[in-house]
Records
---
Amino acid sequence: MTYPEGTIIRYSAASRINHWITGICFVLLLLSGLAMFHPLLFFLSNLFGGGQWMRAAHPWIGCVLFISYMGMIVQFWRDEMWSRDDIAWMRAINRVIVNEEEGVPEVSRFNAGQKFVFWAMALLVPVLFFTGLVIWEVYFSTYTSIEQQRIAVLVHSLAAVGAILVWIVHVYSGLWIRGSMRAMMHGYVTPGWAYRHHRKWFRSLVETGSRGPVPRRQ
Amino acid sequence: MSDLQSQDYIRRSATTLTPPMARDHEQEVAKLIDVTRCIGCKACQSACMEWNNLRPEVGHFEGSYENPMDLSPSVWTLMRFAEWENENGNLEWLIRKDGCMHCEDPGCLKACPAPGAIVQYANGIVDFISEECIGCGYCVKGCPFDVPRISKEDHKSYKCTLCSDRVGVGLEPACVKACPTGAIMFGSKTDMTDWAQERIKDLKSRGFEQAGLYDPPGVSGTHVMYVLHHADKPSIYSGLPENPHISNFVGLWKGLIKPVALAGMAFGVLTGFLHWITAGPNEVQPEDDAEAQRLLHSADGPK
């Protein structure tokens, strides 16, 4: 993989492929799930070839997303670990929000907001997967009682609403912070971007002479 | 059933607008199943198969008169046989014709996500419109009586239609027609309730003090009602629910959560938009580039 000269590598090709498999699955699940959730959005079922196709496809897409998100956890969990710095950063969130980042504590590879999105999904995706299995009528309806299925469908819809809200935060952040979209699409950022948004990460790369995405092992 | 009459709906699944309902000058109907007069001959079961062209696969003898052992996509009504020992130590053979109760407040319809897949006509009949059914199984979760069954072949949900096609042209349901003892009656809901009261009076005079009508208020009454000799203990009749109602889990899922969730999502998107037009995009500034270059050069740059 070649990246333009003088840039910093933010995400490896494997990470990007993994991310976008997850992202595409999420959008498809969101559309089909909302169609089954609220009558006003049932028209979205047409995107899947009608209600029967949508009902049949939704759980399979969910399986792909679950496996894909497990891959995301394997790839990113180290850099997503919570630290003291994150609390300091959260305290300065009112300045981050208005794009005044001077004096905001330096951030390593991911900031507290990104970590929140990551761990919220790490919780919600398995919840959605397992409650989804319980209500997967075609294969699993006989393994649980109807009362258990009622609870599962309620938890599934609540978890889905939570995941969609987290996803809205995630997508908007990607649009708001210019350069993030290129990082996730093509894998690289400018040194200025790294300096502005993830200065601690940038310093660790510079100090170890790494081009990214992780510091060179000494 | 297919959609024969489409201007007399009182409810239509997953529909936020008022369904066509101008032709509502109809009496509410009811089927009255007098358990005390049933002899368990299964003529109703046969008539149901006959009229509806249902042929369940021939199964195995399971040591019970119950045959087949459960409702299925091709078994819409089923005689359930229960042996119950009463207070005097005598055996009572309780035979109940199971099937859709046609609730006034149908849980299946409430849970259904497919517009028009479940409808309720002005006469009270709850009907599945198969071409709209998506096979999700939500009706199963909505039903307090465990009635709908999803076919593994066509992934559609099936249950008793109360012979809506027969009733629509002024005939009684097939099971009613076939019953040799008059244990199954059909008519307006008021007539059936009145007739039930006479039967109950008679039963009480013959020692069944707890005789009564099963028309559960938890689902606002049903359009299939039972006369029971032991109305205080419906569960002895092969698990007839004591106080059926739409599960609170279903109520929450299909009630409050729907508008609150959509509003929450809309609020999230709107907040993002307001932020975009006030704070605006967060761009890398020339100073950032300069500082980054200074740092890179001071460390010999990345290798």
---
Amino acid sequence: MTELAVGTRIEPYVVSAVDAEKMKLMAALLQDPNPIHYDVEVVRALHYGDRPINQGPINMAWFMTCAVRFAGGRERLLRTQMRFLGNVFAGERFVAEGTVTAVDAAAGTAELEIACSADGRPVLAGTATIAIG
Amino acid sequence: MAASDYSHLVGRRLPGGTYTLPDYVNWLWEDAILSAHDGDPTHPSLGYHIAIAGLGVSIGEVMALLDGSPDSGVMFGENELEFRGSLRTGATYECEGEITGVERKQGKRAGVFDKLTFRIEVRERGSLTPTVVCTNTWIFPRKADSGD
């Protein structure tokens, strides 16, 4: 891991084009009956747009992947807290990036602020606590 | 802002249950989230899946508590996951959930909506300490002219 200091930038995690097929797989895994993830007609009828909408848990996972890569391992992620600000549509470019906002050497933890965008639009924002040292 | 018609749900315990994480689900989950197939410890986002899968009610049944349906536009609002250990394939997890909040809100773009918050504790079988605590807030849009 990069030497930590407040303000250290976290390497962005980028998904170049959100894949609608993965949404179908996630719907099956979650037993999620919400058709906005696989039926474009429902998305249109709800006036949400004209492409399938990515599941919140996939966006959440990408937020976490950004933190995990920076932390240097899955087991180093201690806590995440995030707000969903907007929909992520199939085909969009998703980017998760952030900065270190606090370092507690005594506790062996650091706080990260992470923001995610889809085609430049804010879609998810929150914080992560990671183990350091 | 009027109180939600569903505020009586606060404090209701969800049935709870157990969930054993199979290898193939871990693999497919990693595939769906574009993660490397790294085995254990699993990707932390599975904390959400295990919590929901072991809750004893389906996503559709949770929606139905607030008269939401799969095609009514229910959306994720917020999520918090606290990890006190790693999640492993093959392990059995015991889940206990409770509704901790229901609020009626109004936004400029979103209109009138209800916010449901529920908290789930996930313990590996035999452990007293939760491995994961998962708190979710879901948004239930309400039609402005329905009086909901």
